[in-house]
Amino acid sequence: MEKGMKLKVRKQLDGRQQSNIIKLKGSLISKGYTQIIHILDQDEEFHINSFDIESAAAGEVQEFIAAFIAREQLEDSVSVFK
Is the CB of residue 54 less than 8 Å from the CB of residue 2? Predict the structure, then answer.
């Protein structure tokens, strides 16, 4: 069974932040957590990046995302959106 996840990503990012967001999304795909990430505008400030994962991997994916955000200091740039 699949579960949907969403990331809320700030539109105004510096070069380092942009690069790290791309690395995060690439890592989600390369680790096999998802195959595709859809990007939609939420408003003037944020994009919503949505993707499906296996329900059994939900905790692992959330931990991976949280660790990546903390390590790359992206707390003000991206968050898990419910």
Answer: yes
Q: How far apart are CA 2 and CA 46, in angstroms?
A: 25
- Residue at 26: amino acid letter: G
| pTM for the model | 0.90
Helices (H), ranges, the chain:
15-30, 58-71
CB 79 within 8 A of CB 67: no
Q: 27 is written with which tokens?
A: 């890592």
Do residues 54 and 1 touch, judged by C-beta distance below 8 A? yes
Q: How high is the pLDDT of residue 1? A: 53
Which residues fall within 8 angstroms of residue 33, CB to CB, at 6 or more apart? Answer: 51, 53, 57, 60, 61, 64
pLDDT digits (tens, 9 = 90+) for 5-48: 999 999 999 999 999 999 999 999 999 999 999 999 999 999 99
